Amino acid sequence: MELPLIRLAVVDSTQAFLRRNPHLGSCVVLADQQSQGRGRQGNRWESAAGAGLWMSAALPSPAGVTPGVVLQRAMSAAARVLDPGGRTLGLKWPNDLVAWRDGRLVKVGGILGEQAGGRLILGLGVNLTAAPDLPGRAIPPASLRDLGLETPSSAELAICITIFWKNLKQEFQPLFRWPAPGAAMRWEEGQGTCLGWEPDGRLKVATADGIRRLSAGEVSGLG
């Protein structure tokens, strides 16, 4: 059964809307434009009217799945819908949808997940037809159109993605994961070499001080 779809012309953010309205229960909120879109660690997510997919879904919390794994499964499911052929989109730890373009990693979207009153609220932002101009980013933004992917209507995408999100015990294998084992990586708090993505959603990294297992809340500015 499809979840009720609420479509808004403009909202501060679809995540905030669902947090303010717990009485709505399980549902999907889709916005044509966000005025205060939010990325991980409070970063702003640019939102030009009609240029992207801005959605959040309130769902029952899946039992026995760690938050990091929830995000990764949600990202993989979104990638499957946005890139049905599985030839372009991959995952960047911990919560970004990315692709390789002209030998460089670019970001097309990101996912947020939070628990609120017994519900899991998943939020997704994707650049569909245009990407914002954000100079100086280690991983610059791009749109699905830039990558030669089709861009169905945002409502159609939201419905299809939510169908997969309703069963986050199901796992899809992405085209690639970044960083991959052996990749050198830097973040604001340190640097090291990736040893792999752990089954619980953490990232295993070799640093000068030994092996660390990083969770999403410990890392910012990964590049």
Automatic annotation (TrEMBL):
InterPro entries: aa-tRNA-synth_II/BPL/LPL, BPL_LPL_catalytic. Residues 20-121 form the BPL/LPL catalytic domain. Signal peptide: none annotated. SUPFAM superfamilies: Class II aaRS and biotin synthetases (SSF55681). It holds the Pfam family BPL_LplA_LipB. This is BPL/LPL catalytic domain-containing protein. It comes from Geothrix oryzae.
